[in-house]
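Slide 14.
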Amino acid sequence: MKNLQGIIRKNTNNVLNQWEKLGFVANNLANYNTRGYKGVRFEQMLKEDGYLTGAIRTDYSQGSIQITSNPYDIAINGQGYIPVFSKTGEVAYTRDGALKQGLDGYLVTSDDWIVGNGIKIPTNCYKFEIKPNGDVYSYDKAQGKGKKIGNIPLVRFANPEGLEQADMNKLRPTDESGEAVLVKDHNCIVQNNLENSNVSIMDSVSDMLRLNASMLASTRMMKVVDDMYNKSINIRE
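Slide 15: predicted structure.
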């Protein structure tokens, strides 16, 4: 009896783990078109007692960079995050470089968070340029030489996997991630481009099929064991 109960418990544990992993795979697929999104995976481990457990890991590999020809779009080619600030002073970090000019002239994210320390584009600006190191230059028709109006900072963390996911494709630091460290003398920013998510459709679909097969096998095994359990009870009676 104890062996049959143990099989049921282990199969139940397996189904729950596979179901949780399926949730992460579905979330990755839902964010396939989210700019700069990093896929999350659920790594399974078999404990000494035969039960499955798991750990959440984030894939921080570079997503593909797509040309958009929009001067407000920037992509980060390499490691790092752009610090952004809400109107209430809240700080977050993102790799989503789909920027725009806010109503007050400042360079902001798609949901109106201020980029860096505040970069205001002059009203007489007819063209602006974002250098690979994040320096922003404004050009007007009267002057051929550009004027530096600010810098888009880039920061990195000692342990990026410790970052906490926030709303609107943003991240917040935690004790595990450590404090943000400003990157100097870099050339990681690419204007007129956006970074796509690093989620692989083929890998995600393959994971979903494998998880579905594993859950079906476990539930069928539980049905067989349950039938054996009932028969053994009837024999004892």
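Speaker note: The chain has two domains: 2-60+199-236, 65-195.
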